[in-house]
Amino acid sequence: MRPLILIFALLHTNAALAQGWGNVAKQQEDKGFSWTDPLWPSFWMAWTPATFALFCGLFGAIAVIGILEGVRYRDGLERKGILGLTTTLGDRLFISLLGTAYIFLAWLGLVGQPLWWPLAIAVAWGIFVFRKV
Amino acid sequence: MRTENQRAWFFVLPVLLLVAFNALVPIITVVNYSVQETFGNNVFFWQGLDWFEQILRSDRFHAALGRQFLFTFLILIIEVPLGIVVALSMPRKGFWVPICLVTMALPMLIPWNVVGSMWNIFTLPNIGLLGYFMNDVLGINYDMTQQPFSAWVTIVVMDVWHWTSLVVLLSYAGLVSIPDAYYQAAKIDGASPWKVFRYIQLPKMKTVLTIAVLLRFMDSFNIYTEPFVLTGGGPGNSTTLLSIDLVKIALGQFDLGPAAAMSLIYFAITLLVSWLFYTLMTKDDAK
């Protein structure tokens, strides 16, 4: 039993193993840009380029919808959709984002990675929400 | 043509800044943590969505989620009708109004950890007043430190004691705003008390009840302090609600990645249920 636990403990540190214990305290070479490396290692929010891009997309979408509602369509294109809800552009963005989160979570829980199929479903869901809801 | 005064935005700016620092920045940090692994010292390793997969498939999470929904369901199904009944039986005018209002407000003034300690001392089987009364006077075998059922009854009763007042006060505010003319008209038509409640009082209380249900849902779904102080999540894991489990993972085991993933799932559930409640309860108004 004990060797098993040890193996599991070692497996758990695969991130450290990937770097290699022999390289501990050695100067790391610059491997070029990676989406998953720390973005600003000395800063405290643990940013990576991938999560940074995610938030740029999220706030970008909110900004675009906000500007559209503030300047172009002052009524937010309000309408009563097929779910019987009265929604504006902002509501539709909220519903599509929340739905997207649940599509990804459901896929992760029921099927697992990779996530290309739920991505397609989420895009379809977003189009459906903006067209019909 | 510009008809609105855009300078009003400057008055909202301080609030926006405050919200940015006490809500937005922490949530963004949690999202960043949820896809990485750390062993401390501000060093992070990319983990992708593994933590989400692990949490979503863990029995421990399912069990805590189930307990959380059961707790919130019990709280809502007891507190909302009870609060309405208490509000209906409170006097509308006269000497007793301020006394009733202050009595109702008292439980809400007590800090949450003090509520937990009070109920802990109150219900301990040997030295607590209630514990002693149940066991030695009534002869009911009651021990919230050993029996899961007793522990559940205790945390539910504690929450009802602490928060029914909120529903009462909000419902009462809705009730006193109904003009006497409505009641007079009902009296002339010979409406029964049930009809008065169903067609006059309930519709008038709807807005405040929406707020009451939403607040009680969010509060009870995110509850931590009171059950933690009272039972510590025990006996065993029987009262380990989601937030208690989350703190165990985050601070007890220092698994920041899985804890971050779990708190995002938790957040998504709270957001969806709150949105559903709000949308369904205000659906008829927006026409």
From TrEMBL, chain A:
Pfam name, any one: DUF2160
Q: Which keywords fit this entry according to its UniProt record?
A: Membrane, Signal, Transmembrane, Transmembrane helix
Top-level division of the source organism's lineage: Bacteria
What residue intervals traverse the membrane?
44-68, 89-109, 115-131
Signal peptide location = 1-18
Question: What is the name listed in the Swiss-Prot or TrEMBL entry for this protein?
Answer: Small integral membrane protein
UniProtKB/TrEMBL annotation, chain B:
The organism's place on the tree of life at top rank: Bacteria
One Pfam family of this protein, by short name?
BPD_transp_1
Key word Transmembrane present: yes
Q: Which residues form a coiled coil?
A: none
Q: Give the membrane topology.
A: Multi-pass membrane protein
InterPro entries xrefs: MetI-like, MetI-like_sf, Sugar_ABC_transporter
Q: Where in the cell is it found?
A: Cell membrane
Q: Where are the transmembrane segments?
A: 9-35, 69-88, 95-112, 118-138, 150-173, 260-281
Q: Which SUPFAM superfamilies does the entry mention? A: MetI-like
Q: Which Gene3D superfamilies match?
A: MetI-like (1.10.3720.10)
Keyword annotations from UniProtKB, A to Z: Membrane, Transmembrane, Transmembrane helix, Transport
- The reply on keyword ATP-binding is no
Q: In what residue span(s) does the ABC transmembrane type-1 domain sit?
A: 65-277
Which family is it part of? Belongs to the binding-protein-dependent transport system permease family.
Q: What is this protein called?
A: Glycerol transport system permease protein
